[in-house]
Amino acid sequence: MEPKQIREGYLVKRGSMFNTWKAMWVVLLEDGIEFYKKKSDNSPKGMIPLKGSTLTSSCQAFAKRMLVFKITTTKQQDHFFQASFLEERDAWVRDIKRAIKCIEGGQKFARKSTRRSIRLPETIDLGALYLSMKDTEAGIKELNLEKDKKVFNHCFTGSCVIDWLVSNNSVRNRQEGLMIASSLLNEGYLQPAGDLSKNAVDGTAENPFLDNPDAFYYFPDSGFFCEENSSDDDVILKEEFRGVVIKQGCLLKQGHRRKNWKVRKFVLREDPAYLHYYDPAGGEDPLGAVHLRGCVVTSVESSPDGRKSDEENLFEIITADEVHYFLQAATPKERTEWIKAIQVASRTGK
């Protein structure tokens, strides 16, 4: 009997031999993880058995890479995966942990909620708390803060986090708030911004989180960026990053010159409405940007050359300047979600 497929999607995987990071199509089964060079490949490039394996998340082994988790097999082989955004990482981690637990107990895989940290009180759910903190009305307000001639966009102070936890009755006092905030930081729900908060994370202090108005933090999918004193041209360039991130994830994109398809990480922002795309294997700067104001986005059933396509879930963005972008989602549901999100951003963003 074939193992049940639990989850699939694009993740960035670190190579075992050359230590390079590449986007892979990853499939989680009941007994292991298969990874493919392309979604359309019939045979996996490799397979990781889950029996006896352990999972570490979040993995802090790579300073410039966030949202990494590690699977260590019984042969002490480490496999590193990187997700595109926090919710995606958490979903993979939950299902992999559950699959490992089911194997150990001789049970069939079935999802059920599990606690992220046994050290926390039973009343604390870090995932739910994170969503409350991000609420646009009642959550922590993201600000543009200036320090040492630098402007930190879409961030907040450590004191603001503790103030919010106390005022919302999430904790009884500031000391308990420090424990919760440190757990949020360790799990990747918060990220340090600026030397003060980064040094606290890298140091040996009892609490890596600082209840300090000069310690800056940000949500990992907030669109945070730091800018120093810059020219007018730089300011104009940065304007397109000021929009709120409303959706992100990996899609296949067709190149304009060679017409080949490559996996790209896409980040959709509104007001101003931009769709930036990145190399998912690394690099903080985008490879390109699509200005969405006044664009048209539709699903397509044929390839860009007009012939009937064997590829599924294609959609096209036509900008106001009549530049065509052809993208491919992994599933019909994902394609529909991207089209709707882009349509909303194109109508409401600048």
UniProtKB/TrEMBL annotation:
InterPro entries: DEP_dom, PH-like_dom_sf, PH_domain, Pleckstrin, PLEK_DEP, WH-like_DNA-bd_sf, WH_DNA-bd_sf. It comes from the Eukaryota. Keywords: Acetylation, Phosphoprotein, Repeat. GO terms for biological process: cortical actin cytoskeleton organization; hematopoietic progenitor cell differentiation; inositol phosphate metabolic process; integrin-mediated signaling pathway; intracellular signal transduction; negative regulation of inositol phosphate biosynthetic process; negative regulation of thrombin-activated receptor signaling pathway; phospholipase C-activating G protein-coupled receptor signaling pathway. The keyword Phosphoprotein applies. One of its GO terms (molecular function) is phosphatase activator activity. One of its GO terms (cellular component) is cytoplasm. Gene3D superfamilies: Pleckstrin-homology domain (PH domain)/Phosphotyrosine-binding domain (PTB), Winged helix-like DNA-binding domain superfamily/Winged helix DNA-binding domain. Residues 4-101, 244-347 form the PH domain. Residues 136-221 form the DEP domain. Major protein kinase C substrate of platelets. This is Pleckstrin. It comes from Sciurus vulgaris.
